[in-house]
């Protein structure tokens, strides 16, 4: 029953690839938003728990916000994704039954590397975000905590999915705040952001389906 929404979401995610560099429009926003709405429906139909359903649904709202132009929609999208990560944290910790700091025991090298990446954003990201500096800082802490929460789980699809989500956001941050509109890698970065993001979300969903 949950397979049909997953297939629908994957089909729309493929349809969005040619639109990654297109000008904002409501059809483009709809195509970008549908995949995570479909994933959320799949999680709901499979009774995978409220926090995972909420994380996927809030991610769809984040996609809608980031598909539009302007600082207002960007902050809306950033806030929705921050809430999605909080939902994922609750879901991952609920599944693992472990506190967040257990990540430093179960996967110490990766956990320390993740914290180092979070700290490094003060050098290569925060100073380039202008008046969005504090919202971006808060978001970095929350997504980092999501990654640590995933590391409390046994290594599997969910952990890989969370890692791909973080990679996607790192590329997005570089694309938004460190690349000019005419940068020769900007189009490739847009494709990479969407590919890592959809793969990450799909694997988080798949990990939930696998129990």
Pick out its properties.
mainly alpha; 77% helix; 0% strand
Explained architecture:
The longest helix is centred in the middle third of the chain and has 26 residues, at 71-96. The chain has helices at 3-16, 26-45, 50-66, 71-96, 103-106, 108-124, 133-151, 157-177, 186-209. The chain has 211 residues and is mostly helical. It is 77% helix and 0% strand. The chain has one domain (3-209). The model has no long low-confidence stretch (mean pLDDT 94). The protein starts with a helix and ends with a helix.
**What is the share of helical residues?**
over 70%
Query: What gross morphology would you assign?
Result: globular
Protein structure class: mainly alpha
Give average pLDDT, whole number: 94
How are the SSEs ordered, and which strands pair?
Elements: H1 3-16, H2 26-45, H3 50-66, H4 71-96, H5 103-106, H6 108-124, H7 133-151, H8 157-177, H9 186-209
Helix pairs in contact: 1-2, 2-3, 2-9, 3-4, 4-7, 6-7, 7-8, 8-9
Q: What is shown here, in short?
A:
The protein starts with a helix and ends with a helix.
């Amino acid at each position: 029953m949950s397979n049909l929404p997953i297939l629908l979401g994957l089909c729309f995610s493929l349809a969005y690839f040619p639109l990654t560099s297109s000008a904002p429009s409501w059809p483009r926003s709809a195509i970008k938003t549908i995949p995570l709405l479909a994933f959320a429906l799949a999680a709901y139909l499979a009774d995978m728990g409220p926090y995972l359903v909420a994380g996927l649904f809030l991610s769809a709202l984040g996609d809608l916000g980031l598909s539009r132009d302007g600082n207002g929609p960007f902050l809306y999208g950033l806030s929705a994704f921050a809430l999605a990560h909080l939902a994922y944290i609750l879901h991952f910790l609920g599944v693992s039954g472990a506190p967040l700091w257990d990540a430093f025991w179960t996967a110490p090298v990766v956990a320390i590397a993740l914290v180092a990446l979070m700290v490094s954003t003060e050098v290569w990201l925060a100073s380039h975000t202008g008046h969005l500096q504090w919202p971006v800082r808060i978001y970095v802490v929350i997504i980092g905590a999501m990654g640590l929460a995933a590391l409390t789980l046994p290594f599997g699809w969910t952990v890989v999915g969370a890692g791909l989500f973080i990679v996607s956001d790192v590329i997005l941050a570089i694309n938004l705040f460190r690349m000019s509109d005419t940068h020769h890698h900007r189009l490739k970065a847009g494709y990479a952001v969407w590919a890592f993001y959809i793969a990450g979300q799909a694997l988080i969903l798949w990990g939930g389906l696998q129990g």
